């Protein structure tokens, strides 16, 4: 049976079940058979078939030649719009963080085998780091990327490394999957990641996870390594964690819905 929150507000059953099926497809790697969905949800196969047929007609799922069902292209637009709104909502908090610590603040989330930046706030320094919103970066050599990978299990990390590879951006980049796994375990234990010139020589970054985000998300502060030192990290990590918690709070769904 699919897990449901203990306190779920009153919902339209068919909509509720349709969303459950989309989430199950995502949790299954993007595709599944009707029987697999029926087994997981505990719903009758005819009910699953009826719901999937509706989602198929709307383009939110598609049927593969193997007869398995996969997430559909209509979800791409929704995801892009949601990501843009998430970035817009978070930017004031990033601006506050960048102002407090004096370095660029960045927000990124997982995008298939990469990380994509969804919001950025620059520091007031004349020499500062610019991260273009929408830019996709490899995860093994960036602070935000390593934090995102640390939220996955080791098998998932190995799968991403196999598909995307571990090319060296600099001579400090991690290029062996076993070394990456060891680094991720350290990140899980200490609660933050450091990119020490692994993406760009002369640039250091501290990053933390955004807790309870619907997709794996990370927040970072980056700048020249002459300013972003170990002493800077002592101040930066608690500030990052506090801001990440505030961002997480903005993602909490409201159950107080009133008709206009």
CATH topology description of the largest domain: Beta-Lactamase
End-to-end Cα distance, whole Å, is: 36 Å
* % residues in beta strands: 15-25%
CATH superfamily of the largest domain: GAF domain
The helix/strand order is: HEHHEEHEEEHHHEEEH
Order of strands, widest sheet: 6-5-4-9-8-7
Write the CATH architecture name of the largest domain.
Answer: 2-Layer Sandwich
Helix content: 40-55%
If you average the pLDDT, what whole number results? 87
For the record, the CATH class of the largest domain is Alpha Beta
Radius of gyration: 20 Å
- How many independent structural domains? 2
Largest pleated sheet? 6 strands, antiparallel
- Unreliable stretches covering 5 or more consecutive residues: 1-7
Shape: globular
Number of helices: 8
Number of E strands: 9
Structural class: alpha+beta
What is the structure about, briefly put?
This protein is an alpha+beta fold and 260 residues long. Helices cover 46% and strands 18% of the residues. The chain has two domains: 13-72, Arc Repressor Mutant, subunit A (Orthogonal Bundle), CATH 1.10.10; 77-250, Beta-Lactamase (2-Layer Sandwich), CATH 3.30.450.
Description:
May be an activator protein for the gylABX operon. GO terms for molecular function: DNA binding; DNA-binding transcription factor activity. Residues 12-73 form the HTH iclR-type domain. The chain has helices at residues 13-27, 34-41, 45-58, 74-101, 143-150, 154-164, 177-190, 230-250, and strands spanning 31-32, 61-63, 69-71, 104-111, 114-121, 136-138, 193-196, 203-209, 217-224. The chain has 260 residues and is an alpha+beta fold. A hairpin with a 5-residue loop joins strand 2 and strand 3 (69-71).
């Amino acid at each position: 049976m699919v897990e449901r929150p203990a306190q779920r507000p009153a919902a339209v059953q068919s909509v509720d079940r349709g969303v459950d099926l989309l989430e199950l497809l995502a949790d299954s790697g993007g595709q599944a058979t009707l029987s697999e969905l029926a087994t997981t949800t505990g719903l009758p196969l005819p009910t699953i078939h009826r719901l999937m047929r509706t989602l198929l007609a709307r383009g939110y799922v598609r049927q593969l030649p193997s007869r398995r069902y996969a997430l559909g292209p209509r979800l791409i637009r929704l995801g892009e719009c949601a990501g843009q709104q998430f970035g817009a909502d978070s930017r004031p908090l990033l601006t506050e963080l960048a102002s407090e610590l004096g370095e660029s603040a960045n927000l990124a989330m997982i995008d298939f085998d990469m990380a994509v930046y969804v919001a950025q706030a620059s520091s007031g320094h004349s020499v500062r780091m610019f991260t273009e919103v929408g830019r996709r970066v490899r995860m093994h050599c960036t602070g935000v990327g390593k934090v995102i990978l640390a939220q996955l299990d080791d098998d998932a990390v190995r799968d991403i490394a196999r598909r995307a590879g571990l090319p060296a951006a600099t001579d400090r980049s991690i290029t062996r999957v076993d070394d990456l796994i060891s680094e991720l375990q350290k990140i899980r234990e200490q609660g933050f990641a450091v990119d020490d010139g692994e993406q760009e020589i002369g640039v250091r970054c501290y990053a933390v996870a955004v807790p309870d985000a619907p997709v794996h998300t990370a927040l970072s502060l980056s700048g020249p390594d002459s300013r972003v030192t170990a002493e800077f990290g002592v101040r930066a990590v608690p500030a990052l964690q506090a801001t990440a918690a505030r961002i997480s709070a903005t993602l909490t769904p409201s159950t107080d819905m009133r008709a206009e």
